[in-house]
Design brief:
By secondary structure, this protein is α/β, with parallel strands linked by helices. The protein is built from 21 helices and nine strands.
């Protein structure tokens, strides 16, 4: 991770920091125009993002080029930012929390995790390389951060392909809308790049972390596989596997697990994942199991003995600690580092600072919900950015940045122009909260009904075909 601490030192006033930001922005542009080394560009971008975070902490405002801070803005103290966000959001594979109604501060998270921002240049490049309009998740910043995506595209342009890896921790039978995000995007990547995909179902992890039996976890894996298959993945290019099944059936997979385990110390996993002396040894050893699919020779039925095929992992950014560890180990055991695309978090109905829970059926829209349940949940529980009365809302408008109905539409409404009009109308007060919720209801009801219909077509035999180790149809 690039050490950016102290890079804003010497900027004692908002104007000094504003000028420092302008200089750094110009440096980034110059490096890109000169086609400088990628590592140098990434380091410059990291510093730029760090300075933007410092600017917001100092002024309480987002940095905007051409809009210097007003003279009456003074450096703020080190208390909580004006928007109510905590100094540090909590983001790890098991906990995500923030006090900010807008959700996690992702720019700050990029700096903290040492990843790179998906900027417009990268989105444009993906469009050029794949020859397709970028997915709405890319256009709208749902997938906002990456590791080594330029390297993946460089290789692809030289006719050197890659494979996809994503996964799901099956802790219950029913999945909710948020669980679909990585699969919707992964399907798009599979389609536009025409590449193979492996999907890991970590039923072993859920047994280790949850109060569930092994049999329950494996059953949930099979049920979740049906929802994943219903997303439309190509059976000829997709292998889905349960850890409880595949670990014992693939010596090559287990050998990679052992190699990874040998190169990670107990102190390292405690530092990365926060394990304590009272955690069971299964938890301590599990990260190596989630890391192993990042290496192509873990799947000899697909890639043979080849270990040089790069892996691209689309996932929510809370899973990044696993793959920071993986990327550290990879060169030491002779494998390429996996690349990553990170998504933002899907908010709970009660607001972006509230955690969705499978035990609270009102915290999200589940893929098993009926049209009536969807309508009732949104009308009763979706957090509103509107004003208390119609009169106030018409006069002052609503806040789309904290309104959950609008947030959900950014994920699922395809039309960019329609989405922007909704934002403008809601912000101006022309569109009321009830009307905004109605648009969301009418968007989600058919989407979920169609998913349920596709899931009905997924038989046990189809699940077995997807989960049987076999050659896949692709060209690398």
């Amino acid at each position: 991770m690039t050490d950016c601490q102290g890079d804003g030192e010497g900027a004692n006033t908002p104007m000094e920091l504003y000028e420092r930001l302008g200089e750094q922005g110009e440096k980034v542009r110059s490096l890109k125009l000169a086609k400088a080394d990628k590592a140098e560009i990434d380091a410059a971008v990291q510093l730029l993002l760090k300075l933007k975070v410092d600017y917001k902490q100092m002024t309480g405002q987002d940095y905007k080029a051409g809009c210097p801070p007003s003279e009456n803005v003074t450096a703020q103290n080190n208390g909580p930012p004006a928007d109510g966000a905590d100094e540090d959001d909590t983001v790890d594979p098991w906990n995500v929390s923030t006090t900010n109604a807008k959700g996690v501060d992702y720019d700050k998270l990029i700096v903290r995790f040492g990843s790179s921002k998906i900027d417009q240049e990268l989105v444009d490049r993906i469009e050029k390389v794949c020859g397709q309009k970028p997915h709405r998740f890319l256009r709208r910043g749902v997938f906002f951060s990456h590791r080594d995506m330029h390297q993946v595209l460089d290789a692809y342009e030289k006719h050197k392909s890659f494979y996809l890896y994503t996964g799901r921790g099956p802790s219950s039978e029913a999945m909710h809308l948020g669980h679909l995000i990585p699969f919707i995007f992964t399907k798009w990547l599979q389609d536009v790049f025409d590449i193979p995909l492996v999907i890991q179902l970590t039923d072993d992890e859920k047994y280790l972390w949850k109060d569930l039996t092994v049999e329950e976890c494996h059953h949930f894996a099979i049920e979740n596989a049906k929802d994943i298959i219903a997303c439309g993945f190509d059976i000829n290019k997709t292998f889905i596997f349960s850890d409880l099944d595949y670990m014992g059936a693939s010596p090559e997979f287990y050998r990679n697990v052992v190699k990874i385990q040998k190169h990670v110390t107990f102190n390292q996993v405690k530092g990365i994942f926060g394990f304590t002396d009272s955690d069971c040894i299964g938890k301590i050893s599990f990260p190596a199991i989630q890391a192993a699919p990042s290496f192509s020779n873990s799947f000899p039925h697909i890639f043979g003995s080849r270990k040089d095929i790069q892996c691209l992992i689309p996932c929510a950014i809370d899973q990044d600690p696993y793959f920071r560890m993986t990327r550290d180990v990879a060169p030491r055991i002779g494998y390429p580092k996996p690349a990553l695309l990170h998504s933002t978090f899907f908010p709970a109905l009660q607001g972006a600072q509230t955690k969705m829970s499978a035990s609270d059926t009102n915290s999200s829209i589940f893929l098993t919900d009926t049209p009536k349940q969807i309508k009732n949940k949104i009308n009763k529980h979706a957090f509103s950015g509107g004003k208390d009365t119609v009169e106030e809302h018409r006069k002052y408008g609503g806040n789309a940045d904290v309104d959950v109905s609008f947030m959900y539409l950014t994920f699922f409404l395809e039309d960019d122009e329609q989405l922007e009009k909704i934002r403008q109308d809601y912000t101006s007060g022309a569109l009321l909260t009830g009307e905004l919720k109605k648009i969301l209801i009418e968007t989600l009801q058919p989407l979920i009904a169609q998913h349920q219909e596709r899931r009905k077509q997924v038989t046990d035999e189809i699940v077995k075909q997807f989960m049987t180790p076999r050659p896949l149809n692709f060209n690398l």
